[in-house]
Write a structure and sequence with these properties.
The structure is a single chain. It contains 15 helices and 13 strands. The protein is α/β, with parallel strands linked by helices. It folds into two domains: about 220 residues, 3-Layer(aba) Sandwich (Rossmann fold); about 160 residues, 3-Layer(aba) Sandwich (Rossmann fold), CATH 3.40.50. A seven-stranded parallel beta sheet has the order 3-4-2-5-6-1-7, with helices on both faces. A six-stranded parallel beta sheet has the order 8-13-12-9-11-10, sandwiched between helices. The two termini are about 20 Å apart.
């Protein structure tokens, strides 16, 4: 893994911090050392309100906007809990004592990285489990033993059903981005895991989310006892330090508008959100055709490639990341100066999470949205959700200056057999036939993906 820096260091802006210092909290010395080496001195508002309760062993539902320090908040709580309390009586050596569930692979990797930074002197072992890659490697990590698992639900359930590890000794559990668990359809898997944990009274139960809906509260009270609800901010759900603006282009003018705006602002680091994979592929080729360095991440980009692209983007190797909503949550990329909604999202919450990729840790940023005739219908819902009208920008003539259009992707015709069928398909059919003759019965080894949701 090429990640050699700690994302926690982004949380040092005075605007974003409270007067509470970590050194004034009753923290284990080894944990406090990891906190200070991560560049953290004062708590963010959510940390200042939550930590006094969680350090005393009290379960909490925490709500705070994206980029507010929720990850450090719950990882400090979990590490302190494990360091200052004995394992449960049913715990067995090498089995996990804490479980952190996240909705996406990217978020699992970020949380794991922050956990290792905070707990570097604690003696605790941290494992990250997610789908898409590393099936055998992750299995060996669990078999070797660990105290804390950070995971997406699908791959974890796969290993659990194979009895690779046990959940009997879990004494701290975290649900991160719980609202997103519902949105992505993971909630059945989450309930499956929660039902197999020790009783809620035996655990520290933490649930964190940018929005706390009734369904999220119901989940918490059903599986987490009677947690305390803490809402760190009463300000609007829209990010406070973002300069928002809205353009009303025709659909055919959006490519020129995007390119010309990028040329005008010359952002060092920008994210362009597109609603569909096909549209995102077009935007990536559009920018490249006009000499603007860009790369694409979407749901079907392989995990290792996604990690490499994000790392290169963070290092400044290209200025624009084109993304579908797979990147709207869970990616803690510092110093993103501009977010472009090439398509307005259909869901108002997705708008908030997209915009939240900029103006992190008290910084300022710009969010620019295009409301064309196809996506303008979601604008009233978005403005009602953020409780404000997005300022409308003038569509200046020079912003519609024609730009280079990307070449259409060529679709080469495959060689045909005498009967008109594809020779490649005929060869594949022969290979499949031979494979069926060789394959032994009952070959049910788990697929590399590791479950439905991975």
């Amino acid at each position: 893994m090429p990640f050699d820096f700690v994302m926690l260091n982004t949380m040092t802006d005075a605007i974003h911090l409270s007067e509470t210092r970590f050194r004034d909290l009753p923290l284990d010395p080894s944990l406090l050392r990891g906190i200070e080496e991560s560049g953290l001195e004062r708590c963010t508002p959510i940390q200042a309100q939550v930590l006094p309760h969680t350090l005393a062993g009290e379960s909490v539902i925490g709500q705070a906007r994206t980029g507010s320090g929720k990850t450090a908040c719950f990882m400090i709580s979990v590490i302190q809990h494990l360091l200052t309390r004995p394992p449960l009586s049913q715990h067995r050596e090498g089995q996990p004592r804490a479980l952190v569930l996240t909705p996406t692979r990217e978020l699992a990797l970020q949380v794991h990285r922050d956990a290792e930074a905070l707990g570097r002197h604690s003696g605790l072992r941290f494992a990250v489990i997610y789908g898409g890659t590393g099936y055998e490697r992750q299995r060996r990590t669990l078999e070797a033993g660990c105290e804390v698992i950070v995971a997406t639900p699908g791959r974890l359930i796969d290993y659990y059903r194979q009895k690779v590890f046990s959940l009997r000794g879990i004494q701290a559990v975290v649900l991160d981005e719980a609202d997103r668990m519902f949105d992505l359809g993971f909630i059945k898997d989450v309930r499956y895991l929660l039902r197999r944990l020790p009783d809620a009274e035996q655990r520290l139960n933490l649930l964190f989310s940018a929005t706390i809906s009734l369904r999220v509260q119901e989940l918490a009270y059903e599986h987490m006892g009677a947690p305390r609800l803490i809402q760190a901010e009463s300000e609007p759900v829209s990010v406070a330090h973002v300069r928002q603006r809205l353009y009303y282009p025709a659909k055919e003018d959006k490519p020129a508008l995007l390119v010309n705006l990028l040329r005008r602002f010359e952002p060092r680091r920008a994210i362009v959100f597109v609603n569909t994979k096909r549209g995102a592929e077009f935007v990536e080729r559009l920018l490249q055709a006009n000499g603007i360095g860009a790369a694409l991440i979407s749901g079907d980009v392989p995990q290792r490639k996604r990690q490499r692209l994000i790392f290169r983007f963070e290092k400044g190797e290209f200025p624009v990341l084109v993304a579908t909503d797979v990147a709207a949550r869970g990616l803690h990329i510092p110093q993103v100066s501009h977010v472009f909604n090439y398509d307005l999202p259909q869901d108002a919450e997705d708008y908030v999470h997209r915009v939240g990729r900029t103006a992190r840790a008290g910084e300022e940023g710009d969010a620019i949205s295009f409301a064309c005739e196809e996506t303008v219908y979601s604008l009233p819902e978005i403005e009602a959700y953020i409780a404000m009208k997005i300022p409308v920008a003038t569509l200046e003539e020079d912003l519609l200056t024609p730009v280079e259009r990307p070449a259409r992707r060529s679709h080469k015709r495959r060689p045909q057999g005498r009967d008109g069928s594809s020779m490649a398909r005929r060869r594949e059919g022969k290979r499949s036939s031979r494979s069926r003759r060789r394959a032994p019965a009952g070959n049910d080894r788990p697929k590399e993906g590791g479950g439905r949701h991975g």
